[in-house]
Amino acid sequence: MIERIHYETPDTRDQIVAAFGALHTQTTALWQQFHEREFFETPGGGGWSPAQNVEHLLKTTPPVTRALAMPRFVLRLLFGRARIPSRTFVEVRAAYRDVLADGAQAGPYSPAC
How far does the chain reach from its first CA to its final CA, in angstroms? Predict the structure, then answer.
């Protein structure tokens, strides 16, 4: 039985980094629970296989990690000043889920088919 991963709702950079570390540990344990065939098999009804999920995470984690490591002034130089207030983790997650529900795809961050 695969245990659902629980994590807190991080708000600060340090909390986000810590949550990523905890999530890495938990997901590594999760992926190791699969037999090899199950790991690479795409589930019935669509979606990504566990291996494709790992590939997606390998593509998306480095840019996020680099951004979190940058000093704020560098981010301001690259992207300008924020025109709207920052959102909480819960608000960003909800917006992301809404975009996915509307049919958005992972684009270049999709696993190779």
Answer: 28
